[in-house]
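Researcher: We plan to redesign the surface later, but first we want a full-length starting point. Tokens attached.
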């Protein structure tokens, strides 16, 4: 059948319109062709989300509109509770009714359990596998039917977590179809439940058990666990009741009820040895009773076999004795009685043995009796379940059956795993067809979840040979688990499908499973995992140009960003290793990174703080020197830029400070200024109308202008000009008095030191009123304040230059004196250089 056909009403959309049935004819088939219809989808509410399970393109999730929000759930009615309890019970095997064995030697434990539960205490029944824990729980549940307002709730803890059990308890009491409440609503609802919860096969303890108990303060729990399960915490208030084995008399009595007659002396002796070997486990006596019944049938002869047809399919090599020989059939050996599974199976029908092989291949999970005819290939194979139950080879676990304790290991040793791969493939193909059939409801799929997941898990190692089967199996089973609100099974099926798709190399299927895993994590509140899965799905679908799937993934990713509070523009994506961020750093100076003695810049050229966005493409991941990118790399760049800016500011401040505080040196030219300034500010344009005076010691260079007196002829630069007074005996040449620019390495440095010569003679008359400091930014040559630089002092015999101001104030032009002889020719502007 086509798995894309829509199903009945409970699977989401309405079913197909009823087609006209053709007239019945003897030679015509009654089966018509179905018209192609859209794939079935289911809409359900998960917390604040409206989830649309789409098995084709992937599920879609969105905030649940107010009109779609379900009302507060009400409690189930009595008929509905009875239906839920019937569905939770194991199915009755077909065939003759099985005799009910009495509960022997358990009265003390029974009364203790009922007494503790009546006081509102939670109790844990601890016993090994095969000790009869499930049978005792059934009896105690009947005794406690009227103790709590909500009665007795039966739950199965096999492979179930604390969260799964809370949801199971919620749906067992409240009427909430297609609604899986969030954590807060779930805790609020289960807190109101007052019932005796009978939980078989508990598999956890400690903090997880405390979480379950704290969430249900009005419930009294009756747990059943094996000794290898973790103990409850010390303050949990759970009491343990040990379930020991039967004594010898009770064991013999149970064996007699299992056989259906009185035991002979030989059989009683044999049963005594069995009691010592099995430590009184009731399961061993049930299986021993099955061995004795098979022995009785063997002793009855061929006529009884032909009448009942029990052993007609037994292979000759599996039957230890031929009934036609008429020999006495001895009792099984003690070893066969202690491990009776291979001997019991050898005397069962072929369908029962095939069912055991499927169960061993599926890890102990027995397929439902409705699947046995299709799996085994026999229309009457459903009767095999009755044979297995009567022999004690299977035991009920919730609404299903599993191989009894110790049976899987015994059958594996007998060679029942030789064709396990073939059985796994057959089971996977059958379940893949069945889970996708439109007539199968999600509730039925969830009831068979253990066998389905066992087949899917066992098929994963074989997916390299047949990857298509595993992928198709997961594609059909996962949506059914989601529609049935079985979240843990949904997640396991998706993970198995993703692994199968990876092995097969199918990128489209990988994108589907990653998308579904992201939706599953979002519904479960795991936001980080949801983000990673959705980003992986979006990347794969982007490579396939799947626009519809990409849009669905981005919508789900937007919900993740909304729930986590991290915007999508800031949150890292799958293609970005470094998140986008705004980084503040100092702008580089106009002339590059400043050196030890940088060129002084105007104050307006100082560095500014620039804010820019640093993307993943611009941030280096690894530098040549091994420094990694990311936040550390950006921080190092900021430190370098900030240090450069700080150095520039420090140099500027040092220059200004030296110019303002250089008066501490007695030889500083600023202290050698007389009362009459060498330059005055004009009244018209604010420029200086006089050249600086020369002749005072401490000047760093020669005068940059000639004397203001042109002589008698009125023409400056002639022979009749007055000769300035020299302070030194030697007259250096023009080349010796020039100063060189530091950025011209081709010129030879001056022989005369550029620093001022330190004169021991103090100024004759210090200036009582320091002149107002001039603007250092003024570009006039006469307004620059010379700065003291380190250098060699003037040696004897070397030329020395000094310039000083006049000691007396005069209205006449100020005469200057210099140590150099004034040239008759006027110096060109290129010969005079000043240092800024």
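Model: Full-length starting sequence:
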């Amino acid at each position: 059948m086509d798995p894309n056909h829509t199903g009945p009403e409970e699977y989401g959309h309405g079913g197909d319109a009823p087609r006209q049935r053709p007239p019945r004819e003897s030679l015509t088939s009654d089966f018509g062709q179905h018209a192609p219809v859209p794939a079935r989808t289911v809409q359900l509410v998960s917390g604040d989300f409206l989830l649309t399970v789409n098995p084709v393109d992937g599920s879609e999730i969105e905030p649940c509109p107010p009109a779609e929000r379900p009302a507060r759930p009400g409690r189930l009615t009595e008929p509905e509770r009875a239906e839920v309890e019937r569905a939770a019970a194991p199915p009755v095997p077909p065939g003759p009714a099985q005799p009910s064995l009495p509960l022997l030697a358990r009265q003390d434990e029974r009364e203790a359990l009922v007494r503790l539960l009546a006081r509102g205490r939670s109790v844990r029944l601890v016993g090994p596998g095969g000790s009869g824990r499930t049978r005792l729980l059934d009896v105690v549940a009947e005794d406690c039917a009227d103790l709590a307002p909500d009665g007795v709730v039966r739950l199965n803890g096999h492979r179930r977590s604390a969260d799964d059990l809370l949801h199971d308890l919620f749906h067992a009491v409240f009427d909430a179809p297609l609604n899986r409440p969030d954590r807060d609503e779930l805790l609020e609802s289960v807190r109101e439940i007052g019932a005796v919860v009978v939980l078989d096969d508990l598999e956890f303890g400690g903090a997880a058990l405390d979480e379950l108990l704290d969430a249900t303060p009005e419930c009294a729990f009756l747990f059943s666990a094996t000794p290898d399960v973790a103990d409850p915490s010390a303050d949990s208030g759970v009491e343990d009741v040990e379930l020991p084995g039967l004594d010898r008399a009770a064991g013999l009595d149970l064996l007699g009820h299992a056989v259906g007659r009185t035991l002979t002396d030989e059989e009683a002796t044999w049963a005594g040895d069995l009691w010592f070997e099995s430590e009184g486990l009731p399961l061993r006596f049930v299986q021993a009773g099955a061995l004795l019944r098979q022995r009785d049938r063997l002793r009855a002869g061929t006529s009884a076999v032909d009448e009942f047809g029990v052993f007609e399919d037994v292979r000759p090599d599996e039957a230890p004795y031929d009934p036609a020989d008429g020999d006495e059939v001895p009792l099984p050996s003690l070893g066969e009685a202690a491990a009776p599974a291979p001997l019991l199976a050898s005397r069962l029908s072929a369908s029962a043995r095939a069912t055991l092989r499927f169960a061993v291949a599926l890890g102990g999970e027995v397929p439902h009796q409705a699947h046995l005819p299709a799996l085994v290939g026999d229309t009457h194979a459903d009767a095999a379940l009755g044979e297995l139950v009567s022999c004690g080879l299977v035991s009920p676990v919730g609404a299903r059956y599993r191989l009894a304790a110790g049976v899987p290991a015994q059958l594996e040793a007998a060679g029942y795993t030789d064709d396990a791969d073939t059985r796994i493939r057959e089971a996977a193909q059958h379940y893949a067809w069945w889970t996708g059939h439109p007539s199968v409801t999600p509730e039925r799929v969830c009831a068979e979840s253990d066998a389905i997941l066992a087949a899917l898990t066992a098929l994963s190692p074989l997916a390299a040979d047949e990857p298509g089967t595993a992928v198709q199996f997961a594609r059909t089973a996962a949506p059914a688990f989601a529609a049935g609100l079985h979240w843990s099974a949904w997640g396991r099926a998706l993970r198995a499908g993703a692994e199968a798709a990876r092995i097969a190399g199918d990128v489209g299927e990988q994108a589907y499973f990653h998308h579904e895993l992201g939706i599953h994590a979002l519904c479960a509140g795991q936001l980080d995992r949801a983000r990673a899965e959705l980003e992986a799905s979006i990347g794969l679908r982007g490579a396939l140009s799947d626009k519809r799937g990409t849009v669905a993934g981005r919508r789900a990713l937007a919900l993740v960003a909304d729930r986590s509070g991290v915007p999508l523009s800031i949150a890292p994506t799958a293609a970005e290793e470094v998140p986008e961020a705004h980084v503040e750093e100092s702008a580089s100076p106009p002339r590059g990174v400043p050196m030890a003695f940088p060129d002084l810049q105007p104050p307006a050229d100082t560095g500014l703080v620039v804010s820019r966005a640093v993307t993943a493409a611009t941030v280096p991941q690894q530098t040549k020197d091994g420094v990694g990118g990311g936040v550390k790399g950006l921080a190092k760049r900021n430190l370098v830029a900030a240090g450069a800016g700080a150095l520039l500011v420090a140099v500027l401040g040092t220059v200004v400070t030296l110019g303002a505080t250089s008066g501490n040196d007695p030889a500083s030219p600023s202290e050698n200024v007389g009362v009459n300034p060498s330059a005055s500010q004009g009244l018209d344009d604010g420029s200086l109308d006089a050249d600086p005076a020369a002749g005072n010691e401490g000047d760093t260079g020669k005068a940059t202008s000639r004397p203001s007196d042109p002589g008698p002829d009125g023409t400056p630069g002639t022979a009749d000009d007055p000769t300035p007074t020299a302070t030194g005996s030697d007259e250096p040449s023009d080349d010796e008095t020039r100063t060189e620019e530091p950025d011209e390495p081709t010129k030879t440095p001056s022989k005369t030191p550029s620093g001022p010569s330190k004169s021991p003679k103090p100024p004759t008359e210090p200036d009582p009123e320091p002149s107002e400091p001039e603007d250092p930014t003024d570009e006039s040559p006469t307004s620059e304040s010379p700065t003291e630089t380190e250098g060699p002092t003037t040696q004897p015999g070397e030329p020395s230059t000094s310039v000083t101001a006049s000691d007396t104030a005069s209205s006449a032009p100020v005469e200057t004196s210099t140590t150099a002889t004034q040239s008759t020719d006027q110096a060109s502007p290129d010969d005079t250089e000043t240092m800024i």
